[in-house]
Amino acid sequence: MTAISDATALTGRILLHWRQRPGSILVGLLFPVLMVLMFGYLFGGAMAVPDGEYLDFLIPGMLAMTMLFGLEAMVVAVTTDAAKGVTERIRAMPVATTAILAGRSAADLLNAVVGLAVMVVTGLLVGWAPERGFLPTLAAFGLLLWLRFAFTWVGIYLGLLLKTPESAVAVQILVWPVGFLSSVFVSPVTMPGWLGAISTWNPLSATATAIRDLFGNPTWGATDWASTHSVTLALLWPAVLTAIFLPLAARQYRALGR
């Protein structure tokens, strides 16, 4: 119970910090909205989705992309705490490592829920809608948060590893190729063979394709194994990432100051 109360208190600390800087949180929430408007209306006219409208293809992809943005935000948050000495002060307290990392992860998931709500409202306003009912829609949101949970641990580990906000810029730059080399904006079948194969097996593509299917939205009609088993991959990829990076993050945290 002590670890749970510690994690709750640390989650509250992060939420209070967000409350004190609403501008940066607002920018983080609205940036994906800007991307929807830009890709949907500036470039969408050139996109011919075989089995539907491009916006119906784009919105699920952007929901998945929003989960990826949590990785770079987490790296910046962790390195900023380290640079300001916050991390060392918390480490000096009688608080379990699991509680500290769990508190940060829980706060990030709450932020992800708000981000999803903003994106869903945006999608509804531009004409997108889930087509397969409540339970598949709920399952799709579960897959999105599952992916965000995995990316959270990747971000925590990289933030602890890099330690300074300046070095976090490298992660922010690398996030974009990962995001674009996926099925978020276009189908891998439109890419050259080798590039399409990489895009197809991208964890982001697995979740984007899976939630399109669960929402009943256009999927571009791919018939490869990864596309037809996208829900399985959307469950497996975050599990693999979490199994790798959660222990690495805990070990890196314990190693701080040595």
Automatic annotation (TrEMBL):
Keywords: Antibiotic resistance, Cell membrane, Membrane, Transmembrane, Transmembrane helix, Transport
First-listed, main subcellular location of the protein, grouped into a coarse class: membrane
InterPro entries tied to this protein: ABC2_TM, ABC2_TM_bact-type, ABC_2_transport, Nod_factor_ABC_transporter
GO terms, biological process: response to antibiotic
Topological relation to the membrane, as annotated: Multi-pass membrane protein
Residue span, ABC transmembrane type-2 domain: 23-256
Gene Ontology terms, MF aspect: ABC-type transporter activity
Protein family according to the UniProt entry: Belongs to the ABC-2 integral membrane protein family.
Name under which the protein is recorded: Transport permease protein
Biological source species: Amycolatopsis coloradensis
